[in-house]
From TrEMBL:
Chief location category: endoplasmic reticulum
Transmembrane segments: 135-155
SUPFAM superfamilies hit by this protein: Supernatant protein factor (SPF), C-terminal domain
Name this protein carries in UniProt: TMED5 protein
One GO term describing the cellular component: endoplasmic reticulum-Golgi intermediate compartment membrane
Family indicated by similarity: Belongs to the EMP24/GP25L family.
Pfam family name, one: EMP24_GP25L
Gene of this entry: Tmed5
Species, as recorded: Psophia crepitans (common trumpeter)
Membrane topology, from the record: Single-pass type I membrane protein
Amino acid sequence: QVLDGAGLDVDFHLLSPKGETLVFDERKSDGVHTVETEDGDYMFCFDNTFSTISEKVIFFELILDNMGEDGQDQEDWKKYVTGTDLLDMKLEDILESINSVKARLSKSVQIQTLLRAFEARDRNIQESNFDRVNFWSMVNLGVMVVVSALQVYMLKSLFEDKRKSRT
């Protein structure tokens, strides 16, 4: 998401480890992309070459789901548990509840981070508008002062007696 900068747009490229283009967005202000991954290094690029005059502030977040390590950790505890099937079932239920709460909490953190990014972008737009309104208000005030001084001068010149007086 582009938070600040002229036009609030940027190009985005995502390349796979094989060098194939997975995602290419031109002049977008925000976007969400989901990609099935494979082993290797991915490359992503935010490109602002079309707007060399203005700089941009970008917010991005990488979310990695279904990592292999989490699945192994969940299975490791099972080999140490001994007891009846009822005990295993209760532990399975507890683990499922904990994982559900964990997933919901991480989703909440993601949403709050995204909302903070939207807030930052909106704040930058508001501050830019505030500065623009103040500038044009001062220009308008200056024009009004000049016009009023000109009107006073013109009115005075209408009432001046330009004839030479005879005494």
